[in-house]
Amino acid sequence: MLLQLKNIFKWVNSGGQRVFLLKDINLDIEEGEFISVMGPSGSGKSTLLNVIGMLDNFDEGEYQFLDESVHALKEKKRANLYKEYIGFVFQSYHLLDDLTVKENLEMPLLYKKVKGSERKAMVADMLDRFNIVGKKDLFPSQLSGGQQQLVGVARALISNPKLILADEPTGNLNSQQSEEIMDLFKQLNEEGVTIIQVTHSEQNAAYGSRIINLLDGRMI
Amino acid sequence: MWSNFIKIARRKLWSKKGNTFTKLFSLSIGIVSLFYIAIYIQKELSFDKFHSNYPKIAKVNTTVQSPTGDIALGLSATPVAPYIKSQSPEVKEFVRINKEYGSHALRVGDKLFSESENIYYADPTFFKVFDFQLLYGNSSSALVGPDKIVITEQTALKYFESVNALNKIIEYDGEPFTVSGIVQNLPSNSHLQFDFLVSMDTFMKSRLPDINDNWTWFPMNTYLLLEDNKNIAAVEQQLKLVPQYQERSATNDQYILSAEALNGFHFSNPKHGDLGAKGKLSNLYLLFAIGIMILLLAVSNFINLTTAQVATQEREVSVKKTIGASKSDIFKQFFVESILLTSLASLISLIIISVSLPYFENFLGGQFDISFLLKPSVIILLLISPVILALLAGIYPAFKFANISTTHLVKHHDNRFRIFNTRTGLLILQFSITSVLVIGSLIIYYQLNYIQNRDLGIETARKIVLDYGPNSQIGTSFEVLKEEFAQISGVESVSFSSHVPGQIPNGVATQIMDLRGRSNNGEINLNLVDYDFLKNYGLQIVAGRDFRKGVADQNNALILNEAAVKAFGYSNPEDVIGASFEQWGGNGEVIGVVKDFNYLSLHEDIGLLSLKIWPEQFMKVTMEISDSNFGQTLEVLQHKWATLYPEIPFNHYQVEDNFRAQYDRDKQFAGIINLFTIVSICIGILGLIAYSKFWCERRRKEMSIRKVLGANISLLVWKLYSGFSLPVLIGFILAVPVAYYLGGKWLQEFAYQFELNWYFFVLPLVFLLVFAWIAVGTQTIKLALINPVEHLKEE
After folding, report:
1. If residue B388 lies in a helix (H) or strand (E), which one and from where to where?
2. Residue in B3, B10, B12, B322 to test binding to A, most A beta-carbons within 10 Å
3. N vs C: which end of chain A shows fewer Cβ within 10 Å?
4. Structural domain boundaries of chain B?
5. What ipTM goes with this model?
6. Which of A88-92, B156-160, B515-519, B773-777 has the highest mean pLDDT?
């Protein structure tokens, strides 16, 4: 088992009332799964993704990730955990504007203090694999949306994560670009990477092996 | 990793050129300002410290307690120094200096020069006590024996066109002198400023032996070299015991001697006869405060500008954190950026300083000794100063950014951190500082205007002074000369005197005995004048009469000013007319009272003054010259003078200039304050522009909603402006008491002050508000013209 959520609750207090963002979520995810999280706006999809990605806290419940109890971990250890095992892909790509494609890919390795020669090899591999060698010295603003997201995925993959969390990865792309990215996810999944994506599109959801539906913070 | 940080920082700074430029600009001028303030303060504090005996030198002062008030003299009587040396073992050595006043003619071959205020008589021990280096000549014998003269390097060049002028001859007021030494040019931070040192024996030779027994004439600046700097109190004790001063003098004066350490002399209260211009410690504090304020302005600008791009920074930080950056990585990244900026700013400052240093020296009217900058400790300080600045300016934003939460990225509701209050606080601080400086410069401007335009009670316009120096020959035949000058067309009036307005005449002990038998003593300044002096200077007689030719007024008729009359205890000027007086060995009758006029700068109250006719003491001719052909008349005069007295230089100046020169130091200070006010306004305005960008960014949504709801543009603009004006107003209100206090302090230096009015506080406010409105104008108008669709969609 990759991760397990048990009775997860998350809430905010608004105007004296407790508003639940997540309500009693129970979820087991095995390695190698490709899961699509669906639901209307405000149903808690992104919140759930953030909780799984350890970017956000929850108020109640238990979270096991590779036999570590995330809820009991100190912030620093938790950060180390997600740095090691989780890659993020965002709807608006979130590449660093001041860095070239190559440097964007290199960044996570720098933060992990990977040695220079090894780092170069890994970046070269990734550029090769995604067919973007020719674009390595361009800045994000010089790329199309699809290309930017390609770099986004490559950056998420470069530190060999077990899990990729994608928040509407095709939300800003046209249908052809979307298809390319989804194909890429499918391929990665087949290579053994676990993927959890949030999506509005039935078509994209169909790429996955399992669909989780959320409504008002509850799984249905 | 670090190279990566630097690379990113470099690109980021380059891509936001406007922002980077603003930061660099404000930091650079901040650093430059601070540098200049620092070296100015350094120079002032280093006064006289180059003497190796500096801590062990003390000066002897005399306080004259006379019935008309106390007079503090930086001088002492000639026998005081030898006496104290013989009495107290603590005194190792003494040197007496007598400064020559008035102008003197010096000649080498056929070259004639007029010198004034730069000739000192000095004891042979001069070079033992002080560290002035002789380039040529023997320091222990250079000032031994009469008719020896030591000159400075630059004087040697001026007179002989070469530095080695040893044993050459200079004619000084007609007498030949041997150049016995060439002294290295004097540092500007010396209170002793001379071009010529004449042996004391020269001064003594015509006055011996009487002078060694004259305890009531105070011609000497006396310096004592002590065994130890702890001895000053003991020496002062000894000075109090000088037997000659244990009882009041014949003129009912009490003399009290005191010792003053050379350490701190530059900042002590100026005493009559003190050598060198004094510094003001309060001005240094004020400058130091301004330096700190400007640094604060620059730093708060840096912080404001750095944090202004919250939105983009937040996204960037969040992304970096999700791909594995730790807090310290983020912190380092921003800190590297700050250090890069501050280093760059330091470099720019260095360039600005090296280009502007000569101008600034000129502006401050004195050379800086910047050799202290080469000390290892100073070099280290300069090298690490970018890091210190980065710590000051960069640590807050770096810390803030490092703490940005990652959730911001993926969450859709706005979770901006609360930097707003800090930013507004900084803006208020900036405005307070700028307001203090603006009000301050306005006060200084008005005061200087006021003192230069105030009615002094004398006519100074178009008056030329020909300063020929002491020359009893000219004096005794002044009436003939007067005729000669009066005949030149364009010369409207001629009068002779020993001093002219703007110069302080000698104070002399005076006794007045009136018809009712009352007898009063006191010190009064004595100006020696001719028959037409009062008339020509437009002075009014309020009681008695003016000097009259034909009546034997010479030497035995005295005119007092109202202040002197009052000080001698007369409420009605008429009462003193006819009283007999004794003054400076002469006696006679008080014949008139002149209306008070300001014969010195308005820093001072009108002092006690007496006027007497004494032709032998005349040193100056005042001539009123008609407006037309001013230059031509001057030329004719010069020619005439050259034919009459070829051995006396035609040394002239205008009374008005002479008077204004008394405010030179005030003007210089005003210039410094004005400069830094402009600097601070520039930094403040830049800060405001940055703030307005941030402020408008935050209000985009609000404005969009207001527009959708039907607000009109002028209403929006008004709303934005009024919102902006609040920090300006708060800053200003905070500034007013500070400015009022500091301005009042500065004004206290003047005996005459203009009245502070409400508009001194309202005008700067209006000025600042208008400036602020212009600065934020484009931003706010852009915001008011916003297309609501774009910004409502975004959320």
Report:
1. helix B376-402
2. B322
3. C
4. 2-41+281-450+665-793, 54-267, 463-662
5. 0.80
6. B156-160
